[in-house]
User: Fold GntR family transcriptional regulator from Dehalobacter restrictus.
Amino acid sequence: MEQAKYQEIANEIAHAVVLGEFREGDKIHGRSTLAGRFNVSPETIRRAIAILQNEGVVRVKPGIGIIVNSRIEAEKFLKSFDQKNEVQAFIDELKSLMEQRKEIDGQIDVLLQKVSTYADRYISRWNDVEELKIQPESSAIGCSLRELKVREETGATVVGVVRNGNENFSPEADFLLEEGDILLVVSSENGNKKVRSLLK
Assistant:
């Protein structure tokens, strides 16, 4: 399974922190500079930073920028990434075996289901960043994040809100939502579905 580009970039930035290119307390290049370095759009960089922020590798200070938070958390992040790939490799190998030997009976199906179940539980912490826009008819307009109870109801984390092109990272619980706001949500796909339901 090919990983998303923003996940690759998050991995590279974490490597740079572990190797000392970026030290704790350092300000990382701005989003536009990082976009040029990795030859991707600023939106892709925004998603990569959101993942690292959620894992405690960096923090984003309004008006200051992206700050390296913890080398230890960067190491944990990379270890988790490697373990995720190992589990995915097991699944890919089993799928290949099924394609080559269709005559093998239901034992392969049982084994694949067991490994997939384990992988789903483990990989659930490898979250995706989704951008959810507040539509004109949304009941969330005028509500605060506290009132919506996003984390309590869905398990997801709103790591930022983009309003009129301006990014508000780590919004306060009393942050009021407006039409057109774009929520940066870190969660599993199931969690993202629940958030979408809250925003209807």
